[in-house]
Amino acid sequence: MAVFHKIERHLEEGAMILLLIGIGVIMLLQVILRYVFMAPLSWAEEVCRYMFVWTAFLSIGYCFRLDKILAVDALYSKFPALPRRVIDVVAAIMTFGLFSFFFYRSIMIFMAIARTGQVSSALEIPMQFVYLAAPVGFGLGVVRYVQSKIIKFRASAKEGSSK
């Protein structure tokens, strides 16, 4: 159970670290091969681009898990407690709905690309693997958002019962 908990806690973080290290290593290798040995890799930019796309989509769930989402709260902080709670609930419902919609639409796009059989230009890998980043990212985003709201709700319930 501890292994599962550790994987669940560091899934996006670990994957993004590996992807970013991969981008750095491949780009360093590309620079060395291109400018020192005059023999550039034909696939390096494509691989790095796809790794970056995966990193961007994985960051959605990671940001939700850490509760590090961009927010403009200049007006929000001026409201009393009750209206802020109402705004929080409405914002939570809208965010959940929006990311659920993105998840659904990204699955539709993924399936459409899979049906075409399109392959990438340099690597000739199926493009569906690249497009899979969107449903995985948005799916993890929905899951992590729900997790963060449950954690916040439990914390506020504990805080309320201890008063």
Descriptive terms for the model:
163 residues, mainly alpha, 0% strand, elongated, single chain
What share of residues is helical? over 70%
N- and C-termini, Cα separation: 33 Å
What composes the largest sheet?
Answer: none
How do the helices and strands follow one another from N- to C-terminus?
HHHHH
Count of β-strands: 0
* Shape label: elongated
- Overall pLDDT score: 91
Structural class: mainly alpha
Question: Rounded to an integer, what's the Rg over CA atoms?
Answer: 21 Å
Number of helices: 5
- Fraction in beta strands: under 5%
Task: Report low-confidence residues grouped into runs of 5 or more.
Answer: none
Question: In terms of quaternary structure, what is this?
Answer: single chain
Describe this structure as you would to a colleague.
- This protein is mainly α and 163 residues long.
- The chain contains five helices and no strands.
- The chain has helices at residues 2-35, 44-66, 81-116, 128-131, 133-161.
- Helix 1 packs antiparallel against helix 2 (44-66).
- The radius of gyration is 21 Å and the shape is elongated.
- The mean pLDDT is 91.
